[in-house]
Amino acid sequence: MLFSRRQRYSRPWTWHWLIAAACCLGAPLCRGADAVPAAAPDTATVDARARARLAEAIVADELDLQLQVLRELGGSGADPLIGQTLTAWRGGAVYLFETNGTRTPVLLDTQTDSEGRARAIRVADGALLAGGDGQGLLFTANDLTSADASSKLRRAIKTALDLFGVANPNPKMRRDAVVKLGQEQNADYLPHLEARLKIETEAEVHRALQEAIAVTRLLSDDAATREAAIVELGALRSITSLVFLKQLLTQAEGDAAKYGPATIKALRRSVWEIENYLWWGNLFGTAFRGLSLSAVLLVAAIGLAITFGLMGVINMAHGEIIMVGAYTAYVTQNLFASWFGKGGLGIELYFLAALAVSFVVAGAVGLVLERGVIRFLYRRPLESLLATWGVSLVLQQLFRHIFGAANVQVTSPSWLSGSLVIHDVLLAYNRIFVIAFAFAIVAGTYLLLTRTSLGLQIRAVMQNRAMASALGVRTDRVNMLTFALGSGLAGMAGACLSQIGNVGPSLGQNYIVDCFMVVVLGGVGNLVGTVSAALGVGVTDQILQPWLGAVLGKIVVLGAIILFLQWRPAGLFATRSRNLEG
């Protein structure tokens, strides 16, 4: 230690410092109220001052004063009354109420009485214009004098309105306003955008401000400013500025003496960076769309993988069972809306219940179909195909009779609406859910087949029905439960598809062919093969669609599957059997 406790506090200069510190800390208390800093004016006070200032400008005859006020109002978009007044002033809908030599600017309310008269709203404070008895005064447009606005003043009002959205409380609307201003490349907006950039807290809006400022500076006459903006846009990977950069690059290459090699090099570099960013974004976007389509196919095909793959039943009504699940989700939505109201809890929770109800309802339909038709047609594939095709037609007509031929509206809950944006790639929440749900179904089906007694019996019956029956397995009961399980999974697939596409009587027909392709390509009765085939078909289809179109792309995929099956008739993963002839 440099000093002992006693030495440290006995030195005179130490006491002097302690006394000085105490005086500094106690000074605000000694000064009392004068030491309290002035509070910042609240939003209401600022809005009131802005409205009063605008009212003063409207009644003034000096154009310079009006233009100055409009410049002051640019970017002060917190008060909606100011925006309404500016819009009305530009359109000649601001009126002057004159009394005792005083002119008061007012707006007329949109609601009118039987004589077409409306209440007048004062611009200065937003209050209703009242007479001496305190009752609101009613006017028509012809009763008042319209506030004049010259062409120059109207242009200034438009600029103020454009800047008005920059301070909108809604971040999304604020961002859209900033993007719009940047596209105009108006240098008059720069001071307002730069001022907003210093106080903006939302990351998305902050980035939009940076892009808007840089895009506007592309037209700067100063070469250093222009090159800095070009480099910044490339670093931001600004997709919206790509058109402007390409236009400027064309101009620079045509007039190299004016722009110089440094500007041309910076432009080429920024264009390459943005286009490379777009290429990777399209790649990941295509991969996500392919994965989501694969998940849709997998959810739709997983039930068919059980009924057709494990039982060998060609069920042409599988698409209609998917439709049953989709309509069950629609009915569940309506029931929750009637119980809990159309908004809030009802719309948020109905889909979770719809998944369970769709499984039960579709499973019951499959149970009735198996007990009533299919159990008489085992080992008779042609008859089962024709019978289930007839059932599909009956179900389609039945649902058309009950719900109508038009599509029904199934509303997504808020947690499935919208998209997750990652580096300008949109990942829809409903498709993310379908992807997760598909793999959850696969995992659940795998555990059912490998970890339960029912799964053991299903696999035994699949490999050797006669031997399983000889060992005491009730094959009829296993067939019934297996078909009900596959139909229940198809119903859950329909509930998921209701969140992605339209729900109508022909919903199942859009997926039945793809489902059979996935099951056959993967290997009949093989769960891993079904997953692999769904991924392959979905991703390939999304890759080919931009080049060949939806129809031709699907034809190419189908042709490739046929050729592949000529090489491997058993599919990607052949199912082993204990039959003597297998």
Describe the structure.
By secondary structure, the protein is mainly alpha-helical. Among the domains are: 50-155, no CATH class; 300-506, no CATH class. The chain has 22 helices and 7 strands. The chain is elongated, with a radius of gyration of 36 Å.
Task: List strands and helices in order, with pairings.
Layout: H1 5-10, H2 12-31, H3 43-59, H4 63-73, H5 80-90, E1 95-99, E2 102-112, E3 118-122, E4 138-139, E5 145-146, H6 151-164, H7 171-184, H8 190-199, H9 203-217, H10 223-236, H11 242-254, H12 256-310, H13 318-340, H14 345-372, H15 381-403, E6 419-422, E7 425-428, H16 429-451, H17 453-463, H18 465-470, H19 475-497, H20 512-522, H21 527-548, H22 550-567
Antiparallel strand pairs: 1-2, 1-5, 2-3, 3-4, 6-7
Helix pairs in contact: 3-4, 4-6, 5-6, 7-9, 8-9, 9-10, 10-12, 11-12, 12-16, 12-19, 12-20, 12-21, 13-14, 13-15, 13-19, 14-19, 16-17, 17-19, 20-21, 21-22
* β-sheet strand percentage: 5-15%
Helix percentage = 55-70%
Helix/strand structural class: mainly alpha
Total beta strands = 7
* Count of individual helical segments: 22
Spatial shape: elongated
What is the topology, as strand order, of the major beta sheet?
4-3-2-1-5
Helix/strand order, N-terminal first: HHHHHEEEEEHHHHHHHHHHEEHHHHHHH
Main sheet summary: 5 strands, antiparallel
Low confidence ranges: 1-42, 578-582
Chain-averaged pLDDT:
81
Computed over alpha carbons, the radius of gyration is: 36 Å
Distance N terminus to C terminus?
92 Å
